Task: inverse folding
């Protein structure tokens, strides 16, 4: 499996059979308003451009997998792209109606804790809690995914979530070879963080049985945790060797 980190939570999983685009935020810099005005510098989003190396990959995409509908995971440019290319979309059963209304070509819906066929392998929806405390309720439904594809390492896309018993269960019982964690510790001007704190990212990495890919950093203005900060913390805890912190546009080859 080859994985290209695009920007924020956007990435591509490439196998011999598919080129799977995950949570596309592909619009130009500054096309969305700030998500924080006081806690963080009120920069417009995305705060960084999509790397040029991602454009050739977009031409090869065969399918798109969506974890939820927030604009930093599905922006207006992505909607236009998916409609124009008629890309088949896989999503949560709870998002199907809204995504079809946008004009997307939804070909498969996934339910929580139900494992179904997926390109010769299996996929299962994993509950995700998008924030600590009250903020998780207005944040809406989010779905992580556990996938087993033929002749590929198993992968867990935890999506926008804090560390929960359900996340812990997948790491310890499903034992994914690769786990992806949203590591930017996003937070609005009010309420608690929307994503794992650095301490919970360390716990996630410590409990993951295989390699961990950390993304969702340095692309939207309400994510204070940087790659360098996370790299230092992982090094201090002796966890850096089991971690990938890819730069935007970087390819990883997972064997």
Result:
């Amino acid at each position: 499996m080859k994985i290209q980190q695009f920007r924020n939570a956007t990435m591509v999983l490439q196998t011999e059979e598919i080129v799977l685009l995950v949570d596309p935020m592909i619009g130009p810099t500054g096309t969305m308003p700030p998500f924080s005005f006081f806690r963080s510098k009120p920069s417009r989003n995305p705060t960084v451009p999509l790397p040029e190396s991602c454009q050739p990959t977009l031409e090869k995409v065969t399918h798109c997998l969506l974890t939820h509908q927030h604009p930093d995971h599905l922006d207006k440019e992505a909607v236009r792209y998916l409609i124009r290319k008629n890309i088949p979309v896989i999503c949560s059963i709870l998002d199907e109606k809204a995504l079809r209304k946008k004009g997307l070509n939804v070909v498969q819906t996934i339910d929580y804790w139900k494992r179904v066929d997926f390109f010769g392998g299996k996929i299962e929806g994993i509950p995700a809690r998008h924030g600590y405390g009250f903020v998780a309720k207005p944040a809406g439904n989010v779905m992580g995914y556990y996938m087993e594809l033929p002749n590929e390492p198993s992968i867990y896309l935890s999506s926008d979530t804090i560390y929960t018993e359900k996340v812990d269960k997948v790491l310890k019982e499903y034992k994914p070879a690769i786990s992806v964690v949203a590591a930017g510790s996003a937070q609005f001007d009010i309420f608690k963080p929307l994503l794992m704190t650095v301490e919970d990212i360390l716990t996630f990495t410590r409990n993951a049985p295989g390699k961990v890919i950390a993304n969702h950093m340095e692309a939207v203005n309400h994510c204070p945790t940087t790659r360098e900060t996370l790299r230092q913390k992982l090094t201090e805890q002796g966890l850096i060797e089991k971690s990938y912190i890819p730069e935007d546009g970087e390819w990883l080859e997972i064997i």
Remarks:
- Helices lie at 54-58, 76-85, 96-102, 136-139, 165-174, 198-207, 227-236.
